[in-house]
Inverse folding.
DNA sequence: CGAGAGTTTGAATCGGGTCAAAGAGGGTGG
DNA sequence: CCACCCTCTTTGACCCGATTCAAACTCTCG
């Protein structure tokens, strides 16, 4: 169990991702932030492929401080469906949740923190309570996006939509219509998330690369021509951070 | 606005569906039940096709007392994706929800009741609070089922899975391996929910009818050979009513 | 340097979509 | 009470997109 004050990989102060996410959702004051920082306890570290939480369990209240995970279900015949990805700042079992209907599995090495003090919403911190409720709404919205991808989008649209959603959630760095961020997923994970075969994911990515839209190499993705990308898959920046529309300004600028 | 004590269509006491659902999720005592009955106010009645709640709004706390509705989104190009169906007893905007990420549209005439007193969970009714948290978990689980249908199931499996899920939620009547209940959806609605074309829904239903599995006629569906149905789509009765596995006994018996 | 995971390629197949048009109800108004 | 109309269902033909299988290639890590 690690107790250092910084994340190994990103080098940012630990809990920074979670605080940024909550801040995005609803402004916090310094009092709220220190409540979160002091209440959180460094917790388990999971190897890639390890189960963070099994299906049907009452989950512990945890936040991911580094690494990527996935909500997923495995069918008796071995095929799996990924419902969505969890990135640093995302929480599990914080909302008054009794059971979780899906497993959560680490896609990379994942570090977590225990945030039991947030269960049932912090009584004396109304802003925090609001932020947590919005985080829960966001989870719901992300699941709806996933249904839209599977239900009505073409393969290229699914990929574009997922990439843009991740870029926004990760608050990715944007430079002149290009957006770049660490991307640890295999094509197989993408296939399992987007309801397509690995082969077809591969061919579609190739086409998109040829069109100068996406480039994935050595664990890093580069999105180019963001305007084109968001147009082709009907993605709107800012929708994720519901109510207040506080999308990272850089992303919105890059598209406009 | 109606204030009568009974539902027009079903003839059951109004709020019966909601109370039954909560009861299924977590046992209530008479005190809890009368709290719900007395706090609920008969509210709007919606025509088929009317919007019960628009996307991005802070929803009023309502429960459907009769009729069917659907959570859905309509894309700019006119195509629509149905995320799931709401049946009597299902609630909108009760959980500490700030915004709703999808519209809710009436599929039939829908009567609703105002249950604002349940917002944020009834303070002095712990059992009710638990039941509401479980209802919220159930909504999450239903959305995950929808993703599984779209992501990994064949057309026939999607139909079977949806029918069985509805049978269980509606606590449908079962007689010797046959299950029958009112079914007001058009094939177009099914198509929009299951990510298939109307034509293909039609052909698949025909095949299933030919196989003696399903029969839809004049607003009523009959499911036959329930064991076969649940086997072919990997549906497990009882999973919906999470923790306590309190599926309607009749349904579980019919399959075993 | 080798092993294993992940990516890339080709060829054959078939499931499901689209288009177009014909039937069946079921409700309404004359 | 019947005729009409509108919606929903059903059918056929054609086509394209995505899956599958199998094999080669490439990268990364031990």
């Amino acid at each position: 169990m690690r107790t250092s004050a910084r994340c190994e990989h990103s080098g940012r102060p630990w809990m920074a991702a979670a605080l940024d996410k909550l801040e995005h959702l609803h402004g916090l004051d310094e009092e709220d932030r220190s409540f979160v920082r002091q209440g959180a306890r460094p917790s388990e570290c999971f190897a890639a492929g390890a189960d963070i939480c099994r299906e049907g369990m009452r989950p512990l209240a945890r936040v991911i401080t580094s690494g990527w995970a996935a909500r997923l279900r495995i069918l008796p015949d071995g095929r799996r469906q990924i419902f969505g990805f969890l990135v640093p700042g995302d929480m599990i079992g914080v909302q008054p949740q009794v059971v979780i209907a899906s497993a959560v599995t680490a896609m990379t090495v994942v570090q977590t923190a225990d945030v039991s003090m947030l269960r049932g919403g912090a009584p004396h911190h109304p802003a925090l309570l609001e932020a947590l409720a919005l985080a829960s709404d966001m989870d719901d919205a992300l699941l709806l996006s996933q249904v839209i991808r599977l239900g009505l989008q073409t393969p290229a649209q699914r990929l574009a939509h997922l990439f843009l959603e991740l870029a926004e959630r990760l608050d990715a760095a944007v430079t002149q219509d290009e957006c770049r961020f660490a991307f640890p997923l295999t094509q197989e994970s993408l296939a399992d998330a987007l309801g397509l075969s690995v082969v077809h994911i591969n061919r579609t990515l190739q086409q998109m690369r040829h069109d100068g839209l996406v480039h994935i190499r050595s664990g890093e993705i580069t999105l180019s021509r963001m305007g084109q990308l968001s147009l082709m898959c009907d993605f709107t920046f800012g929708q994720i951070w519901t109510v207040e529309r506080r999308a990272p300004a850089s992303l919105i600028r890059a598209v406009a």
Notes: The longest strand of chain A covers residues 80-86. Chain A touches chain B at residues 56, 73, 75-76, 79, 81, 83, 95-102, 121, 130, 133-134, 136-137, 140-141, 143-144, 146-148, 150-152, 195, 234, 242-243 (CB under 8 Å).
